Amino acid sequence: MLRSSRVRRAVTGLLAACSLGFGFLTATTGSAQADTTCAGSVSVYGILSDGQLTYSAINPSNGDRLKTLIGPALGFTPKAMATLNFNTVLVTSTSGDLYRVDIQTNVNALTLAGVTKIWDGGWTEDKLAYDGRGHLFGTAGGTLLQYLVSEDKPAGPAHIGQRAIIGDGFVLKTLTATGQDRLLATSSDGRLIDYAIDSTSTTKWASHTLKSDGWSGFNQLLSPGGGLYYGRTSAGGMYWYKDANPLDGSGSDIAYHNDDPVDASGWTQTFLSAMPNSYSCTSVLDRDNITEVKAVGRQMMNDFKSSWATTSQWSCLETLWDHESGWRWNADNPTSSAYGIPQSLPGSKMASAGDDWLTNPVTQIAWGLDYISQVYGSPCAAWSAWQSRDPHWY
């Protein structure tokens, strides 16, 4: 039994169980450092060659397909698709229009609530991917673009905007999102590539080659989060893989299940897209072990923005919160209502990052990083502001 002073920390994203409830599981595995618990579901939407929408549910623990449903035709010729949530899919047409597809149910039958054109022309992307955290990505002519999606059911330009060019040279065979501002892609020569995106930085993106070859056989790549990857072959086979740490920039810990595919054939959809952030893993952290808490904080900072993943930014953040709270989750300012590792004033502000803000250092760190980003732009800017004030605060 875990001590009461131990809490779970998010490693690959917030714990999310699909609202539809298919394929839910809890599986615990041991590691040299901490236990890891994974939970969630895998929901995959697709479009057949005749324009019919499909829905498939997969058990994330063993790769078994639970069901596939075929719905009505969309009524236009699709070019790319991205699943926003369990009942909303964005699809572009070959004429450059953007449609929102609303799903009414996918329990026993796949029925639609409507297909709405929300944008007239201009969408030339050949691939789309949504990270589940408000960012829609697409590639057009080798250029990677990012959009901000501000509504669960966007109605047009008012809800999809802030178009940003991330970079050129993104001539990719497949593309999917694996987490917040995190993309996974394959190239025609078989490389598996991880991209960390930060549109506010000078470089805007960083890449890691997870595998140098062996992935050229896939023409569709999808991920529900949590380090689960699915690849569809030209023969219609669906194969699944588990990355123990999808944020480490290494593919050495990817487990292959090629001898036990989801299906050896039968996946004939022209397009496929998984619901993002429907599966995640957490590990156990001793919240009273400052060394452990700081290690988690540094990893979270590195993952929050690629431009922050430097020794100097970490030094600023570590020193700032050393002074503010000593990195103690229960630091309570006796002269104010400031609380927690980032000394949120009042502490209840951190509820926006999670209901467990009072006791969970990960929730507190997540809130603190977002606060620093919005108010100061970087940990070093926040530390500089703290030093310039008397009494000190940021």
Automatic annotation (TrEMBL):
Q: Where is the signal peptide?
A: 1-34
- Which InterPro entries does the UniProt entry name for this protein? Lysozyme-like_dom_sf (IPR023346), Tachylectin2 (IPR023294), Tachylectin2_sf (IPR036813)
Q: Which UniProt keywords apply?
A: Signal
Could you tell me which Pfam families the record lists for this protein?
Answer: Tachylectin
Tell whether Signal is among the UniProt keywords.
Answer: yes
- The Tachylectin domain extends over 116-250
Designated name of the protein: Peptidase S1 and S6
